[in-house]
Every structure is written in C-alpha cells, then in structure tokens.
Amino acid sequence: MLLKNKLKKPLALLILISLFSTPAYSQTRDLDPSHSPTTAETGRFTKLESGTPVPFDAWCFDDYAFSRINAALQFNKRDCELYTNRLLEKMKAEYEYEIGKLILRVETIEKEYSGFMMIKDQEIKELEEIALKNSNDNFIWWAFAGAAIGTLTTVAIVYAVTDHR
C-alpha cells in the first residue's frame, strides 16, 4: 500500500511531462472549431520538392525546422527517461535504506531475545541447583510432622470412637 502511494506522484509527473512534450500546433488545431477531425483521420505526410503543389491542407517545414522539431522531441523523450530513471533510483535507494533499517532492527531484537533466553536459562539452572541442594535439609521436619499428625489423628479417632459415659 505504501509503495502504491509513493508511486502515484512520479507517475503523475511522468504523465504531465509526456502531455507537455506534444507539439503545440496539434493542440491549437484541435481547438479550431472549423476543423473537426474524424476517427479515420490519422494524419498525412509527404516529402515535397521545391515548387510542388501540396495535395492537402498542411503545415510545411523545411528540413532545418523539421530537424529542430525532431531533435526537441528526442531531447524531451530522453529527458523524461532520465528523469524517471533518476526518480526510480532515488525511490530504490530510499526503500533499500528502509529495508536495511528493518533488517538491523530484526537482528537487534534477535540478539536481545537470545540474551534474555541465556539469562533465563542461567537462572533456571541456578534455581535447580538450589532446590536440589536444599531438598534433603527438611526431611527430618517432614518425618516429625508426619508422625505428629499421625499420632494426633489416631488419638482423635480413638477418642471419638470410645464411649465416654
């Protein structure tokens, strides 16, 4: 979605440049109400020698004028290509930079995660060692508490079962 939004501006500029590179005389001809082109009209051209009559209404250019128009067209076309290539290279560099930042962020998070996991594993190991070391220290207390509870339970049962009359 972000790529689509970033491409809209260069695409609009490309369209505008291509529209402005069309010859101006074709735009004025289309605005002339006396001339209404048909859909079959695609334009006609012919090379005329000096003194030859023109077989249709036309604009006539000498070779020098035609070469200037053609050179301007080629220049505008090449200029547009260079501009779009420059924009594409700029966008490519920006996106490669963003991708590089994201890759660096992922690597940083992975290192941070592995550090947390190493600390967690070390704490678990230390707690296991402490638990195994201290587990037999309370054995006597458990045995004494069990014997005392068993004795008290036996006395309570005997007292409850015997008749105190």
Characterization of the model:
The chain has 165 residues and is mainly alpha-helical. The protein has a domain at 61-137. 74% of the residues lie in helices and 0% in strands. It has helices at 2-20, 24-31, 63-134, 139-161. The chain is rod-shaped.
Please summarize what this structure is.
The chain is mainly alpha-helical. It has helices at 2-20, 24-31, 63-134, 139-161.
Ends: how far apart? 93 Å
Unreliable spans are 24-33
Average pLDDT, to the nearest integer? 80
The helicity comes to over 70%
What keywords describe this structure?
mainly alpha; 4 helices
Give the arrangement of secondary structure elements.
Elements: H1 2-20, H2 24-31, H3 63-134, H4 139-161
